[in-house]
Structure to design on (295 residues):
């Protein structure tokens, strides 16, 4: 099998898996979680018991002498943009999958759901040294293009979220759905202002993907690890209980800081643990969002 055939087979396999998950887990949930940009008048029909009286078309009712109600069609035509963290820290994975593996899986699933609902989907990848923007479009051929771009990701250097969010604000003219998927291992101050501006015009959802080692280390004595984004070694004594307590407290505090940044912008925020069933967490998140929208 040639390299090109192998790549196409992988794209086809990923798309089929995502379509299956979309049908089994996301059927109706994704659509309910994101409302269209309004409703377009279609026609009128005779009133039926239980219809909303606010939808009565009084002109037609007066002309015919019988009650009629207006019918509307939801204008979907939504645009979804995925802003993905492609920094070197995405290569961490202590439970059989790296963070970039999970981010790609999530993005393909959400893009499949968006395009399945006849919405547009696009992609923005930005690190300190690279930028890649795929304009949001519809259709299965475009989904294949997105999957190709995702499979070609090679995490490197540090993230540049402030610039990413500024670019998204400049590119997206109409209100859009924006998923920011990252481990957010960067100072909140480096993107807080841009997040507030973006959230003021768009529906922003932050998804934090976390590896268990970022919250708690096993007691294995003195260890040396390398910062994936700087290349510098750092030494830790994991048997030191006071160090363990400080590490755990700092991890919890970091999560609360990121969560609070999104809360201040009135944007949704989801925490996904690589060691847990993150697909169920995602479905539950969209179900709660759909209930909130409908209430």
């Amino acid at each position: 099998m040639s390299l090109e055939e192998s790549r196409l087979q992988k794209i086809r396999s990923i798309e089929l898996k995502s379509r299956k998950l979309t049908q089994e887990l996301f059927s109706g949930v994704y659509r309910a979680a994101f409302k269209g940009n309004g409703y377009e008048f279609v026609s009128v029909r005779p009133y039926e018991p239980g219809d909303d009286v606010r939808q009565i078309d009084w002109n037609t009712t007066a002309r015919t002498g019988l009650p009629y109600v207006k019918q509307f069609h939801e204008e979907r035509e939504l645009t979804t943009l995925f802003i993905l963290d492609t920094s070197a820290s995405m290569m961490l994975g202590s439970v059989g999958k790296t963070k970039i593996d999970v981010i790609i899986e999530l993005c393909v699933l959400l893009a499949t759901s968006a395009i399945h609902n006849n919405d547009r989907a696009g992609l923005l990848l930005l690190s300190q040294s690279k930028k890649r923007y795929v304009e949001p479009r519809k259709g299965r051929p475009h989904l294949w293009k997105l999957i190709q771009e995702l499979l070609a990701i090679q995490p490197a250097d540090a993230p540049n979220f402030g610039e990413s969010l500024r670019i998204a604000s400049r590119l997206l003219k109409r209100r859009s759905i924006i998923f920011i998927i990252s481990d957010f291992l960067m100072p909140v101050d480096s993107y807080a202002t841009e997040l507030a501006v973006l959230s003021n015009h768009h529906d922003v959802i932050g998804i934090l993907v976390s590896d268990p080692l970022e919250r708690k280390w096993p007691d294995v004595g003195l260890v040396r690890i390398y910062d994936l984004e700087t290349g510098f070694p750092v030494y830790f004594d994991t048997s030191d209980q006071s160090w363990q307590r400080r590490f755990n407290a700092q991890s919890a505090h970091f999560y609360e800081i990121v969560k609070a940044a999104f809360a201040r912008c009135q944007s949704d925020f989801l925490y996904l643990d690589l060691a847990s069933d993150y697909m169920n967490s995602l479905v539950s998140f969209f179900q709660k969002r759909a209930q909130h929208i409908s209430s």
The longest helix spans residues 241-264. The two ends are 53 Å apart (CA to CA).
